[in-house]
Automatic annotation (TrEMBL):
Transmembrane segments: 7-26, 78-100, 121-142, 190-212
Lineage: Eukaryota, Viridiplantae, Streptophyta, Embryophyta, Tracheophyta
PANTHER family named among the record's database cross-references: OS09G0494600 PROTEIN, PTHR31881
The name this protein goes by in its record: DUF599 domain-containing protein
Domain of life: Eukaryota
Cell membrane as UniProt keyword: no
Keywords tagged on the record: Membrane, Transmembrane, Transmembrane helix
Length: 239
């Protein structure tokens, strides 16, 4: 009987998350093929230039580099703390003997039995745990950059600790931070799933145009030709 009442959950929840996954696959494709048409690709290029600039004039800009990286670490730390606190709260709700579904029985469309209620909370818990993992790894990589960006370039190991290597570490940290943010965003439809699958679908469909406006550069520069993009990449590699 439980699954007979959950036809809306079986249709709308996977459909909403499938649309979100398709959008992020499209975004990943654009970042790989036309990076300067996206905010992620443009920011990544700017960070590579920033690392080269900081290491080239390190005697004057070492404090600026450390303070900038510290601010990035503080942001990731805040989100990691928020994620683990939410995990703790959800774990307490799941293990509680109080039935949280009783006040919602008459107002929720779709299934709201014992199994579906547990599934909703466990799904939220898993999302926040993976977000915490991504933020923690992001802090690890940015901490490494915090030390290496001020390393002297006139020693024997300078050929290994070069701007390209440090840029790669910094990029990994910011990619993990971005993945953590996207997981955090995906928790909003799951949170609304407590009140029914219709809100999950509506929230997912609403988030896609919002994320599109935040992820893509809406200007004539988004039509940059491949030749200009290749020139920019060569300039970055030469720095």
């Amino acid at each position: 009987m439980e699954w007979r009442n959950s036809y809306l959950d079986l249709m709308l929840v996977p459909l909403g998350f499938a649309a979100t996954i398709i959008y992020h696959v499209y975004l990943w494709h654009k970042v790989r093929t036309q990076p300067y048409s996206t905010i992620i690709g443009t920011n990544a290029a700017g960070r590579r230039l920033w690392v080269s600039s900081m290491m080239k004039d390190n005697d004057k800009k070492n404090i600026l580099a450390v303070q900038t990286l510290r601010n990035a670490i503080m942001g990731s730390t805040l989100m990691a703390t928020t994620s683990i606190l939410l995990c703790t709260g959800l774990a307490a709700v799941i293990s509680s003997t109080y039935s949280v579904k009783k006040p919602l029985n008459e107002t929720v469309y779709g299934a709201h039995g014992e199994f579906m209620t547990a599934l909703k909370y466990v799904s939220l818990l898993i999302i926040f745990l993976f977000a915490f993992l991504c933020y923690s790894l992001s802090i690890r990589f940015i901490n490494q950059v915090n030390f290496l960006i001020n390393s002297p370039q006139d020693t024997a190991g300078a050929s290994m600790v070069n701007p390209q290597y440090i840029s790669e570490l910094l990029e990994r940290g910011f990619v993990l931070n971005t993945v953590g943010n996207r997981l955090f965003y995906s928790a909003l439809p799951l949170l609304l799933w407590i009140f029914g699958p219709i809100l999950v679908f509506l929230c997912s469909m609403t988030m896609i145009p919002i994320l599109y406006n935040l992820d893509f550069i809406m200007s004539h520069s988004s039509g940059t030709s491949n030749e200009e993009m290749n020139k920019r990449r060569k300039m970055e590699d030469n720095l």
